[in-house]
Design goal:
Blueprint (H helix, E strand, L loop, with lengths): L3 E4 L8 H15 L4 E3 L6 E5 L3 H11 L8 E3 L6 H4 L5 H10 L4 E6 L14 E5 L4 H9 L4 E2 L14 H8 L5 E4 L10 E4 L6 E4 L5 H8 L3 E2 L26 E6 L2 H17 L4 E5 L11 E4 L6 H17 L4 E5 L7 H11 L4 E3 L1
Bound molecules: threonylcarbamoyladenylate and magnesium ion (MG).
The site of magnesium ion has 3 residues, from loops.
Amino acid sequence: MKTIVEKIDAAKLADEIEKQKIAAAARLLKEGGVVAFPTETVYGLGADAQNPEASRRIYEAKGRPSDNPLIVHIAAFSDLELITRELPKAAKVLGEHFWPGPLTMIFRKNDRIPLETTGGLDTVAVRMPNHPVALALIKASTGFIAAPSANVSGKPSPTTAEHVFCDMDGRIPMILDGGPVGIGIESTIVDFSEDTPMILRPGFITQEMVQQAIGSVSLDKGLEPDGATAPKAPGMKYRHYAPKAELVLVKGEMCRVIPAINRLVQEAGQQGKRAGVICTEETCGSYQGGIVKSIGSRKEKAGIARHMYGVLREFDELDVDIIFSESFSEEGLGQAIMNRMQKAAGHRVMEV
Ligand code: TXA
Ligand code: MG
Protein backbone atom coordinates (compact mmCIF):
# COMPACT_ATOMS: atom_id res chain seq x y z
CA MET A 1 0.00 0.00 0.00
CA LYS A 2 1.28 3.46 -0.88
CA THR A 3 1.20 5.94 2.00
CA ILE A 4 0.40 9.52 0.97
CA VAL A 5 1.68 12.27 3.28
CA GLU A 6 -0.57 15.30 2.90
CA LYS A 7 0.72 18.55 4.39
CA ILE A 8 -2.12 20.51 5.93
CA ASP A 9 -2.10 24.02 7.33
CA ALA A 10 -4.23 24.25 10.49
CA ALA A 11 -4.48 28.02 10.06
CA LYS A 12 -6.01 27.73 6.57
CA LEU A 13 -8.74 25.14 7.03
CA ALA A 14 -11.32 27.54 5.60
CA ASP A 15 -9.46 27.57 2.25
CA GLU A 16 -10.72 25.34 -0.54
CA ILE A 17 -7.41 23.44 -0.97
CA GLU A 18 -7.19 22.46 2.70
CA LYS A 19 -10.92 21.65 2.77
CA GLN A 20 -10.37 19.18 -0.06
CA LYS A 21 -7.60 17.45 1.86
CA ILE A 22 -9.87 17.03 4.89
CA ALA A 23 -12.64 15.76 2.59
CA ALA A 24 -10.34 13.18 1.01
CA ALA A 25 -9.20 11.93 4.43
CA ALA A 26 -12.80 11.85 5.68
CA ARG A 27 -13.82 9.81 2.62
CA LEU A 28 -11.16 7.22 3.44
CA LEU A 29 -12.43 7.04 7.03
CA LYS A 30 -16.06 6.62 5.92
CA GLU A 31 -14.98 3.75 3.67
CA GLY A 32 -13.44 2.00 6.69
CA GLY A 33 -9.84 3.06 6.03
CA VAL A 34 -7.16 4.25 8.45
CA VAL A 35 -5.78 7.81 8.42
CA ALA A 36 -3.10 9.27 10.72
CA PHE A 37 -3.76 12.83 11.90
CA PRO A 38 -2.30 15.36 14.32
CA THR A 39 -3.77 16.07 17.74
CA GLU A 40 -2.38 18.42 20.38
CA THR A 41 -0.94 15.48 22.38
CA VAL A 42 0.54 13.00 19.86
CA TYR A 43 -0.39 11.86 16.34
CA GLY A 44 -3.37 9.48 16.21
CA LEU A 45 -4.14 6.54 13.94
CA GLY A 46 -7.80 7.06 13.11
CA ALA A 47 -10.64 4.86 11.87
CA ASP A 48 -14.45 4.86 12.15
CA ALA A 49 -15.13 3.85 15.78
CA GLN A 50 -18.54 2.42 14.87
CA ASN A 51 -17.17 0.06 12.23
CA PRO A 52 -15.65 -3.16 13.68
CA GLU A 53 -13.72 -3.86 10.48
CA ALA A 54 -12.17 -0.37 10.54
CA SER A 55 -11.07 -0.83 14.16
CA ARG A 56 -9.55 -4.18 13.23
CA ARG A 57 -7.44 -2.38 10.63
CA ILE A 58 -5.99 -0.10 13.33
CA TYR A 59 -4.86 -3.10 15.40
CA GLU A 60 -3.33 -4.63 12.30
CA ALA A 61 -1.44 -1.47 11.29
CA LYS A 62 -0.06 -0.97 14.80
CA GLY A 63 0.60 -4.62 15.55
CA ARG A 64 -1.36 -4.02 18.75
CA PRO A 65 -2.81 -6.76 20.98
CA SER A 66 -6.59 -6.85 20.40
CA ASP A 67 -7.38 -6.63 24.14
CA ASN A 68 -5.98 -3.09 24.33
CA PRO A 69 -8.93 -0.69 23.79
CA LEU A 70 -8.95 2.42 21.57
CA ILE A 71 -9.95 5.98 22.50
CA VAL A 72 -13.00 7.34 20.64
CA HIS A 73 -12.47 10.94 19.52
CA ILE A 74 -15.45 13.29 19.21
CA ALA A 75 -15.87 16.90 18.10
CA ALA A 76 -19.11 17.86 19.89
CA PHE A 77 -19.96 17.50 23.57
CA SER A 78 -23.50 16.38 22.72
CA ASP A 79 -22.09 13.31 20.91
CA LEU A 80 -20.90 11.92 24.24
CA GLU A 81 -24.44 11.03 25.26
CA LEU A 82 -24.95 9.06 22.05
CA ILE A 83 -22.35 6.43 22.99
CA THR A 84 -22.49 6.27 26.81
CA ARG A 85 -24.94 4.62 29.16
CA GLU A 86 -24.63 7.25 31.87
CA LEU A 87 -22.88 10.56 32.25
CA PRO A 88 -21.86 11.33 35.86
CA LYS A 89 -22.12 15.01 36.83
CA ALA A 90 -18.42 15.22 37.76
CA ALA A 91 -17.50 14.00 34.27
CA LYS A 92 -19.64 16.71 32.72
CA VAL A 93 -17.90 19.31 34.86
CA LEU A 94 -14.45 17.96 33.96
CA GLY A 95 -15.32 17.88 30.26
CA GLU A 96 -16.54 21.47 30.42
CA HIS A 97 -13.25 22.47 32.05
CA PHE A 98 -10.82 20.68 29.79
CA TRP A 99 -12.49 19.79 26.46
CA PRO A 100 -11.39 20.21 23.81
CA GLY A 101 -8.07 19.19 25.36
CA PRO A 102 -5.66 16.49 26.56
CA LEU A 103 -8.24 14.66 28.68
CA THR A 104 -9.79 11.23 28.07
CA MET A 105 -12.72 10.02 30.16
CA ILE A 106 -13.97 6.45 30.51
CA PHE A 107 -17.68 5.61 30.71
CA ARG A 108 -19.98 2.60 30.51
CA LYS A 109 -20.73 2.28 26.81
CA ASN A 110 -23.89 1.50 24.86
CA ASP A 111 -24.15 -0.62 21.70
CA ARG A 112 -23.21 2.10 19.23
CA ILE A 113 -19.52 1.48 19.85
CA PRO A 114 -18.69 -2.17 19.05
CA LEU A 115 -16.60 -4.39 21.33
CA GLU A 116 -13.95 -4.55 18.56
CA THR A 117 -13.20 -0.87 19.31
CA THR A 118 -13.09 -1.27 23.11
CA GLY A 119 -10.96 -4.40 23.20
CA GLY A 120 -13.96 -6.41 24.44
CA LEU A 121 -14.70 -4.07 27.40
CA ASP A 122 -18.18 -2.69 28.19
CA THR A 123 -16.64 0.72 28.81
CA VAL A 124 -15.48 3.31 26.30
CA ALA A 125 -12.72 5.93 26.49
CA VAL A 126 -13.70 9.28 24.93
CA ARG A 127 -11.69 12.41 24.12
CA MET A 128 -12.33 15.71 22.35
CA PRO A 129 -8.92 16.76 21.02
CA ASN A 130 -7.86 20.39 20.86
CA HIS A 131 -6.43 20.51 17.36
CA PRO A 132 -8.20 22.20 14.42
CA VAL A 133 -7.20 19.45 11.94
CA ALA A 134 -8.42 16.66 14.24
CA LEU A 135 -11.71 18.44 14.93
CA ALA A 136 -12.30 19.20 11.23
CA LEU A 137 -11.58 15.58 10.30
CA ILE A 138 -13.89 14.15 12.97
CA LYS A 139 -16.72 16.50 11.90
CA ALA A 140 -16.25 15.76 8.19
CA SER A 141 -16.25 11.97 8.70
CA THR A 142 -18.47 9.90 10.98
CA GLY A 143 -18.20 11.94 14.18
CA PHE A 144 -16.64 9.07 16.16
CA ILE A 145 -13.00 8.36 15.32
CA ALA A 146 -11.18 5.62 17.20
CA ALA A 147 -7.51 6.56 17.46
CA PRO A 148 -4.59 5.17 19.38
CA SER A 149 -1.21 6.87 19.15
CA ALA A 150 0.09 6.37 15.59
CA ASN A 151 3.24 4.41 16.50
CA VAL A 152 3.94 0.74 15.95
CA SER A 153 2.95 -0.98 19.21
CA GLY A 154 5.70 -0.66 21.85
CA LYS A 155 7.55 2.25 20.22
CA PRO A 156 7.51 5.85 21.48
CA SER A 157 4.40 7.81 20.47
CA PRO A 158 4.86 10.00 17.37
CA THR A 159 5.06 13.75 17.83
CA THR A 160 5.73 14.58 14.14
CA ALA A 161 4.37 13.27 10.83
CA GLU A 162 7.92 12.01 10.06
CA HIS A 163 7.74 9.74 13.12
CA VAL A 164 4.40 8.40 11.86
CA PHE A 165 5.79 7.82 8.36
CA CYS A 166 8.75 5.96 9.81
CA ASP A 167 6.38 3.51 11.57
CA MET A 168 3.41 3.41 9.17
CA ASP A 169 4.87 3.67 5.64
CA GLY A 170 3.17 1.01 3.54
CA ARG A 171 0.67 0.14 6.28
CA ILE A 172 -1.92 2.94 5.91
CA PRO A 173 -3.14 5.01 2.93
CA MET A 174 -2.77 8.56 4.35
CA ILE A 175 -0.99 10.71 6.91
CA LEU A 176 -2.19 14.29 7.47
CA ASP A 177 0.94 16.27 8.31
CA GLY A 178 0.01 19.23 10.52
CA GLY A 179 3.55 19.78 11.80
CA PRO A 180 4.94 18.95 15.25
CA VAL A 181 2.42 18.57 18.10
CA GLY A 182 2.25 21.05 20.97
CA ILE A 183 2.12 18.81 24.07
CA GLY A 184 4.02 15.65 23.14
CA ILE A 185 2.66 13.32 25.81
CA GLU A 186 -0.61 11.34 25.67
CA SER A 187 -3.81 12.56 27.31
CA THR A 188 -4.66 12.17 30.99
CA ILE A 189 -7.16 9.31 31.40
CA VAL A 190 -9.84 9.60 34.11
CA ASP A 191 -12.13 6.62 34.70
CA PHE A 192 -15.77 7.46 35.47
CA SER A 193 -17.12 3.94 34.96
CA GLU A 194 -17.05 3.15 38.69
CA ASP A 195 -18.26 4.91 41.83
CA THR A 196 -15.30 7.24 42.32
CA PRO A 197 -13.21 8.89 39.59
CA MET A 198 -9.70 7.53 39.16
CA ILE A 199 -6.70 8.57 37.05
CA LEU A 200 -5.56 5.59 34.95
CA ARG A 201 -2.85 7.46 33.03
CA PRO A 202 -1.23 10.74 34.12
CA GLY A 203 -0.85 13.40 31.44
CA PHE A 204 -0.64 17.11 30.74
CA ILE A 205 -3.73 17.69 32.90
CA THR A 206 -2.34 16.93 36.33
CA GLN A 207 -3.99 15.28 39.33
CA GLU A 208 -4.10 18.71 41.03
CA MET A 209 -5.91 20.24 38.05
CA VAL A 210 -8.51 17.44 38.09
CA GLN A 211 -8.91 17.84 41.86
CA GLN A 212 -9.46 21.55 41.53
CA ALA A 213 -12.24 20.95 39.02
CA ILE A 214 -14.14 18.05 40.64
CA GLY A 215 -12.80 17.50 44.14
CA SER A 216 -11.10 14.25 44.98
CA VAL A 217 -9.72 11.88 42.36
CA SER A 218 -7.66 8.80 43.13
CA LEU A 219 -4.68 7.43 41.26
CA ASP A 220 -4.75 3.85 39.94
CA LYS A 221 -2.58 1.72 42.23
CA GLY A 222 -1.33 -0.05 39.13
CA LEU A 223 0.64 3.09 38.25
CA GLU A 224 3.00 2.63 41.20
CA PRO A 225 6.41 1.61 39.88
CA ASP A 226 6.67 -1.47 42.15
CA GLY A 227 4.49 -3.38 39.65
CA ALA A 228 2.55 -5.08 42.49
CA THR A 229 -0.92 -4.25 41.09
CA ALA A 230 -2.06 -4.62 37.46
CA PRO A 231 -2.99 -1.24 35.93
CA LYS A 232 -6.66 -0.83 35.01
CA ALA A 233 -5.94 0.63 31.55
CA PRO A 234 -4.84 -2.46 29.59
CA GLY A 235 -2.29 -0.41 27.62
CA MET A 236 -0.43 0.62 30.76
CA LYS A 237 0.71 -2.91 31.48
CA TYR A 238 2.99 -3.19 28.46
CA ARG A 239 6.61 -2.06 28.28
CA HIS A 240 5.78 0.87 26.18
CA TYR A 241 6.98 4.14 24.77
CA ALA A 242 10.30 2.36 24.51
CA PRO A 243 13.37 3.03 22.38
CA LYS A 244 15.29 0.09 20.85
CA ALA A 245 18.19 0.55 23.24
CA GLU A 246 18.07 -0.40 26.89
CA LEU A 247 17.15 2.69 28.94
CA VAL A 248 18.33 3.18 32.52
CA LEU A 249 16.94 5.99 34.70
CA VAL A 250 19.42 7.35 37.20
CA LYS A 251 17.70 8.90 40.24
CA GLY A 252 19.08 11.00 43.08
CA GLU A 253 20.69 14.35 43.84
CA MET A 254 22.23 15.83 40.68
CA CYS A 255 25.62 16.06 42.40
CA ARG A 256 25.59 12.25 42.50
CA VAL A 257 23.68 11.56 39.28
CA ILE A 258 26.20 13.27 36.98
CA PRO A 259 29.30 11.39 38.19
CA ALA A 260 27.30 8.13 38.25
CA ILE A 261 26.25 8.56 34.60
CA ASN A 262 29.79 9.49 33.60
CA ARG A 263 31.02 6.28 35.23
CA LEU A 264 28.28 4.15 33.63
CA VAL A 265 29.07 5.56 30.18
CA GLN A 266 32.74 4.79 30.66
CA GLU A 267 31.98 1.22 31.78
CA ALA A 268 29.64 0.71 28.81
CA GLY A 269 32.42 1.90 26.49
CA GLN A 270 34.82 -0.60 28.02
CA GLN A 271 32.31 -3.35 27.24
CA GLY A 272 32.22 -2.20 23.62
CA LYS A 273 28.74 -0.64 23.93
CA ARG A 274 27.63 2.62 22.37
CA ALA A 275 26.09 4.71 25.15
CA GLY A 276 23.72 7.66 25.06
CA VAL A 277 22.95 10.21 27.75
CA ILE A 278 19.67 12.10 28.25
CA CYS A 279 20.46 15.31 30.09
CA THR A 280 18.99 18.79 30.50
CA GLU A 281 20.09 22.26 29.37
CA GLU A 282 21.42 22.83 32.86
CA THR A 283 23.69 19.77 32.87
CA CYS A 284 24.70 19.22 29.22
CA GLY A 285 28.26 20.43 29.72
CA SER A 286 28.92 18.01 32.60
CA TYR A 287 29.12 14.80 30.57
CA GLN A 288 32.44 13.58 29.25
CA GLY A 289 31.52 10.67 27.01
CA GLY A 290 28.75 9.01 25.01
CA ILE A 291 26.21 10.68 22.74
CA VAL A 292 24.68 13.43 24.87
CA LYS A 293 21.22 14.85 24.11
CA SER A 294 19.30 17.47 26.03
CA ILE A 295 15.59 16.87 26.65
CA GLY A 296 14.97 20.52 27.59
CA SER A 297 15.30 22.80 30.57
CA ARG A 298 14.46 21.74 34.13
CA LYS A 299 12.78 25.14 34.46
CA GLU A 300 10.15 24.19 31.85
CA LYS A 301 8.53 20.78 32.33
CA ALA A 302 6.21 21.27 29.34
CA GLY A 303 9.31 21.47 27.11
CA ILE A 304 10.63 18.21 28.55
CA ALA A 305 7.26 16.51 27.84
CA ARG A 306 7.29 17.88 24.27
CA HIS A 307 10.81 16.65 23.48
CA MET A 308 10.81 13.32 25.31
CA TYR A 309 9.59 10.93 22.60
CA GLY A 310 11.54 12.72 19.87
CA VAL A 311 14.78 12.29 21.81
CA LEU A 312 14.09 8.58 22.38
CA ARG A 313 13.48 8.15 18.64
CA GLU A 314 16.69 10.05 17.78
CA PHE A 315 18.63 7.51 19.81
CA ASP A 316 16.95 4.73 17.79
CA GLU A 317 18.43 6.27 14.64
CA LEU A 318 21.89 6.51 16.21
CA ASP A 319 21.91 2.80 17.04
CA VAL A 320 23.05 3.18 20.63
CA ASP A 321 23.03 0.07 22.83
CA ILE A 322 22.26 1.68 26.15
CA ILE A 323 20.89 5.07 27.26
CA PHE A 324 21.38 6.60 30.70
CA SER A 325 18.89 9.30 31.62
CA GLU A 326 18.60 11.85 34.38
CA SER A 327 15.29 11.77 36.29
CA PHE A 328 12.79 14.48 37.16
CA SER A 329 10.70 15.44 40.16
CA GLU A 330 7.23 13.87 40.11
CA GLU A 331 5.45 17.09 40.94
CA GLY A 332 2.72 18.35 38.58
CA LEU A 333 3.47 17.41 34.98
CA GLY A 334 6.54 15.56 36.30
CA GLN A 335 4.21 12.70 37.29
CA ALA A 336 3.34 12.02 33.63
CA ILE A 337 6.93 12.51 32.46
CA MET A 338 8.31 10.05 35.01
CA ASN A 339 5.48 7.57 34.33
CA ARG A 340 6.46 7.43 30.63
CA MET A 341 10.21 7.41 31.32
CA GLN A 342 9.83 4.58 33.83
CA LYS A 343 7.82 2.55 31.35
CA ALA A 344 10.30 3.26 28.56
CA ALA A 345 13.01 2.03 30.93
CA GLY A 346 11.02 -1.12 31.73
CA HIS A 347 11.41 0.10 35.33
CA ARG A 348 15.22 -0.10 35.25
CA VAL A 349 15.87 2.62 37.80
CA MET A 350 19.19 3.12 39.56
CA GLU A 351 19.13 5.08 42.82
CA VAL A 352 22.40 6.90 43.53
O1 TXA B 1 -3.47 11.65 23.72
C1 TXA B 1 -4.00 10.56 23.48
O2 TXA B 1 -4.78 10.00 24.29
C2 TXA B 1 -3.66 9.90 22.14
C3 TXA B 1 -4.23 10.77 21.01
C4 TXA B 1 -4.07 10.14 19.66
O3 TXA B 1 -5.57 11.07 21.28
N1 TXA B 1 -4.17 8.56 22.08
C5 TXA B 1 -3.63 7.55 22.79
O4 TXA B 1 -4.20 6.31 22.56
O5 TXA B 1 -2.70 7.69 23.57
P1 TXA B 1 -3.53 4.91 22.95
O6 TXA B 1 -4.40 3.88 22.34
O7 TXA B 1 -2.12 4.93 22.55
O8 TXA B 1 -3.70 4.83 24.50
C6 TXA B 1 -4.97 4.63 25.05
C7 TXA B 1 -4.88 4.09 26.45
C8 TXA B 1 -4.39 2.65 26.49
O9 TXA B 1 -3.52 2.50 27.62
C9 TXA B 1 -5.68 1.88 26.70
O10 TXA B 1 -5.48 0.65 27.35
C10 TXA B 1 -6.50 2.85 27.53
O11 TXA B 1 -6.20 4.10 27.00
N2 TXA B 1 -7.94 2.64 27.38
C11 TXA B 1 -8.71 2.86 26.28
N3 TXA B 1 -9.98 2.51 26.50
C12 TXA B 1 -10.06 2.07 27.78
C13 TXA B 1 -11.10 1.54 28.60
N4 TXA B 1 -12.35 1.41 28.15
N5 TXA B 1 -10.78 1.17 29.88
C14 TXA B 1 -9.52 1.29 30.35
N6 TXA B 1 -8.49 1.79 29.61
C15 TXA B 1 -8.75 2.15 28.35
MG1 MG C 1 -0.14 4.52 22.58
